[in-house]
Amino acid sequence: MAQHGGPAGFRELIGVAMDRVRVVDIGANPSDAEPPYGGMLRAGAAEVVGFEPNPAALAVLEARRGPQERYFPHAVGDGARHTLHICQAPGMTSLLPPDPAVLALFHGFPDWGRVLATEAVETVRLDDVAETAGVQLLKLDIQGAELMVLRHATARLKTTLVIQAEVEFLPLYEGQPLFSEVELFLRGHGFVLHRFFPLVSRAYRPVLVNNDPYAGLSQVVWADAVFVRDPLRLDALAPAELLAGAAILHDCYGSADLAYRLLAAHDAREGGALAARYLAAHHAVLPRAA
């Protein structure tokens, strides 16, 4: 399968030796679609530290993992003891209890979010896990606890270049922070929203589109939001960080325009011509300079 940026990986396009990108994946359940860094991992351009407290999902990850992958059974949070709410749909299992009133607005959710059991779990702070030091791409998909993790990962955010976090626009879980709260927190740590990847909507009951409870319509419910370091403050990034950020943006998200800007900042600092090489090789369409 080609990487999101196209058949050629970033390192192949610019022809420069680079260190592997350091990825931390919190909620690395393999039942989901391939992670955005999958192409980089297969190409040997990334190394991954993942967290998955579900024993069955962790076993699958361990059985499939390559030499640049490590997985831990920890639930990541604030370091305190919490109650895990195990739902009928494994993808809705969360440290937060589902909100029945919100779920009842949409088809399927009352069943998917039905709590089958609860169990006490100990959480770890990301800042306290030594193996996550130097993270550059941080991915979070933990059903409403993303902001809890981020608030206890401020040391790790200092090296992080790109964050992909699931965010909600309606509180599917009781006491769940919404997108606006996550965005404000990350903005305070030097990140800006880059894009949604993707944006998911649903139809309010009783309307049902094509007899499909998964079909979207008018209400945006959640998204994977991609945050990047502020492009107006690229001078705060070291040359190696500019290269790593450009690699993530190209290989994971196909963001050739922002990858180009990071390379241009690298060239201005280092006196190179990587941006022009990238543009010529990638055949990206950018507006002409005035």
Description:
The chain is an alpha/beta fold. It has a single domain (10-282), classed as Rossmann fold, CATH 3.40.50.150. 30% of the residues lie in helices and 24% in strands. The protein is built from 11 helices and 10 strands. The chain has helices at residues 10-14, 38-42, 55-64, 100-103, 109-112, 146-151, 154-157, 179-187, 239-253, 256-270, 274-282; strands at residues 21-26, 46-51, 69-72, 75-76, 81-87, 115-124, 137-140, 162-168, 191-202, 219-229. The strands form 2 sheets. It has a 7-stranded mixed β-sheet. The longest helix is centred in the C-terminal third of the chain and has 15 residues, at 239-253. The model is unreliable at 1-6 (pLDDT under 50).
End-to-end separation in angstroms reads 38 Å
Order of helical and strand elements: HEHEHEEEHHEEHHEHEEHHH
- Total of DSSP H or I helical runs spanning 4+ residues: 11
The second-level CATH architecture is 3-Layer(aba) Sandwich
Query: What's the level 1 CATH class?
Result: Alpha Beta
Let me know the average pLDDT: 92
CATH homologous superfamily descriptor: Vaccinia Virus protein VP39
Backbone CA Rg:
20 Å
- Described by the principal axes of the CA atoms, the overall outline is globular
CATH topology assignment:
Rossmann fold
DSSP helix fraction: 25-40%
How many beta-strand segments? 10
Structure class: alpha/beta
Strand order, main sheet: write it out. 3-2-1-7-8-10-9
Low-confidence segments, given as residue ranges, are: 1-6
How many structurally independent domains?
1
Measured by DSSP, the beta-strand proportion falls in 15-25%
The largest sheet, given as strand count, sense and whether it forms a barrel, is: 7 strands, mixed
Oligomer: single chain
